[in-house]
Write a structure and sequence with these properties.
Number of helices: 8
Number of domains: 1
Shape: globular
Structural class: mainly alpha
Distance between the termini: 38 Å
Number of strands: 0
Strand content: under 5%
Radius of gyration: 20 Å
Order of helices and strands: HHHHHHHH
């Protein structure tokens, strides 16, 4: 699967841009977003206190330490099993620069956290959710690499669905923990997909170019 040739990827890209811009303008206007009130009520009622340990675990995976550990493990796998240095560089670029973009967006937009009890500690601003954005970047990239190594369509679909569920749970953990509005998470997912799409397309372009150069270099020359 090539991201730059996937029609679905472009559909998600356009949808992500629309979602991010919609919530960005809504937040900047200072209006109350009904989406936040209704979904916050849904998640509060849907997940009882007994589920909080699970969501704390998911929340931890989306934090700096969790992201660092998962990234390091996958980098080692790419190095030892595949020797794929281009993918290693692309993953580090996507996560590290994506994190800086998220911090810049938070500071530029300046939305305060929800005025309610926070079940985990937070030190930054609210919009967009860093857990949702970085989770989308990291696990979409990992899923992309794994899917490209699978042979059957069924295995690829299962991997994609599982990755989607994992990313979703990581994002909504921030709502359940009371540290984000649903619109923060939705915008984080959207911004994350835009960034990981651009990162993967750049990776594919570099890989295609180096493969072409390597082929020309090692292909036999035919004498006239």
């Amino acid at each position: 699967m090539e991201m730059r040739k996937s029609k679905w990827a472009y559909v998600f890209l356009i949808g992500s841009a629309a979602i991010f811009l919609y919530f960005l303008f809504a937040v900047k206007s200072g209006e109350q977003i009904s989406f936040d009130r209704s979904l916050s009520t849904v998640f509060t009622g849907l997940f009882p206190e007994s589920t909080y340990p699970f969501f704390e675990f998911m929340d931890g995976l989306g934090g700096k330490i969790g992201v660092g550990i998962v990234t390091l493990i996958f980098l080692i796998m790419l190095w030892v099993k595949h020797g794929n240095y281009a993918a290693m560089a692309a993953l580090v670029f996507a996560v590290a620069i994506g994190n800086e973009v998220n911090k810049w967006l938070k500071n530029t937009i300046g939305r305060a956290r929800p005025d309610q009890e926070h079940l985990v500690s937070v030190a930054s601003l609210s919009f967009p959710s860093g857990h949702a954005m970085i989770g989308m970047i990291l696990y979409t990239f990992i899923a992309f690499v794994i899917i490209n190594g699978l042979r059957t369509s069924k295995a690829k679909w299962i991997t994609g669905v599982l990755a989607g569920i994992w990313i979703f749970l990581m994002g909504i953990s921030r709502i359940v923990m009371g540290v984000h509005y649903p619109s923060d998470v939705a915008a984080g997912f959207a911004a994350g997909f835009i960034w990981v799409f651009l990162s993967i397309v750049l990776y594919e372009a570099v890989k295609a170019k180096t493969t072409k150069v390597s082929y020309k270099k090692h292909s036999p020359k035919i004498s006239p």
